[in-house]
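Submission sheet (multi-component)
Chains listed below:
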Amino acid sequence: MSLLAKPNDRMAAVLGQQQDVDMEEVAGRSLWQDARIRLMRNKAAVVSMVILAMITLMAIFAPWLSSHPFDEVYWDFIQVAPNVAEGFWFGTDENGRDLFVRTLYGARVSLMVGLVATTVSLIIGVTYGAFAGYMGGRVDNLMMRFVDILYSLPFMFFVIILMVIFGRHIFLIFVALGAVEWLTMARIVRGQTMAIKKKEFIEAAHASGVSTARIIFRHIVPNILGPVIVYMTLTIPQVILTESFLSFLGLGVQEPLTSWGVLISEGAKVMESAPWMLAFPATFLAVTLFCFNFIGDGLRDALDPKDR
Amino acid sequence: MSEPILKVDDLKVHFPVDVGTFFSKKATLKAVDGVSFELHEGEALSVVGESGCGKSTLGRAVLQLLHNTEGQVVWMGENITGYPVKAMRPLRSEMQIIFQDPLASLDPRMTIGEIIAEPLVTHNPEIPKDQVKARVREMMDIVGLLPRMINRYPHEFSGGQCQRIGIARAMILRPKVIVCDEPVSALDVSIQAQIINLLGELQETFGLSLLFISHDLSIVRHISHRVMVIYLGNVMELAEKDALYNAPRHPYTQALISAVPVPDPDKEAHKKRIVLKGDLPSPINPPSGCVFRTRCLYADHQCEQEKPPLTTLNEPTAKGNHQVACHKQAEINSLD
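Outcome: structure written.
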């Protein structure tokens, strides 16, 4: 290191004299890279990611994975047990439709709801929370009381009103779930922002004349992303569950489209006569939820600076 | 003397605080209570005082990072007191700050190249990327960092190196004034010297003005031209460095200077030390009259009633502009 370089050497550069500064640049290792390495050492999280990736790929390529369309009714095969010879690997439902392909189509809806609603909640929640936390004082008070009011609205009531006004549509489920999930996200982000905004590097940015928006998005948000990502991986299963619950009540997706919630609800009715109708979708749901939770745990450990 | 680059006039920073849990009474914490000084181009003015006396608050109020309650901050003839954030923004390129905790003052998610470039990019967004990078590398070289470390992250550096990064960030726009808020108190003694020397060199090379906040008198002696001693938000003494160290007039300054360790065990053992009694009074409820009277050896009832003004000594022996705020100063100094 040139820590002890003679002052004249250093000042020479100022005076425009040539100095050998063109040595090759050293790559740094960011905190994100550190976190990724730690995450990759966590076996449960890695296995979960692989399983999730497989389920996602299966959901995407569902039409090509089975010879049966998801909405075709096979009159000769009403509610039959798994039957490899005919290609009904998971059996059929009470309307004679192939359960395997329907489970994968259900995965499409459930994963989509999970991702879209969580992304919506992430964008709104992070922006809102960071702004409230950074501004503080009266602005913060006003913004957070608004969140409290929304919190106190009964969720089911809200969803039913939406359904009554706009009719049943899958898009509404995204809106309804996103509109509810961002509240908790905003609270988490606000708390984290308040903890970080007194740090000296924020003051340094302020003293350099950096604008408020830039301070929030360039300095605050990247530094609170750790807890946010962890919370996000825990929100996805929560959203999937809520969608299943809505579908269970008959407020979710519409036939012939399906979701895991719908399939489980149908399977639960015929649990005794056709247990496969409950077992397969329920297994998929449970495995997915487990995976998200393991990934969330892994991320929490990987991003926790106290670990280092 | 030429027009001062920065003129602070009767600056007061008071914070409202709640006292008591339930029927909370509003009280004011007088962090800075009437400080005036001038800072000239190329001058290093040090501010010393014990912790909690308002040094850092003063530094931040001068940069208008905190709004002052009363008084004025005049920047190159322009009264910038109470300027809103937007109006201050263009001026920020001329005045910078270096912080006490080197690592905490750097964004852990940014490479040091991005950190150093930030003020430049903020004030001159039109400069192309490769030029920004060239200037960052040049600046890193000036402060004694290897330019090839540009893509590293703050946690990969030592405390001293982090402070160099902080200095590079403050220097990249070639400001006129840098407020150094205890820039070396978090560092090892050996590193302290390096950083202080670096600041001194930069100051000479670029004609910088420094407002150097510290509680360490031996470091202050090395870097400053003038020294201001503050106690509980009030200026006690303001003088040229040599005058203050060799002939301190205020009893508080005398006590502070007698407490500076001498690097010679024999002398240290026989040194006469003035030991102050008691603790720093609360700035919420400061003593009446002279704020220092509760701990002063010479205080009498005049000190209790009247606040001593900061007056310039006009004795022939006094060097330069030596200002002291003490009723008893003449008596005390004739006793010796």
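Remark: The two ends of chain A are 25 Å apart (CA to CA).
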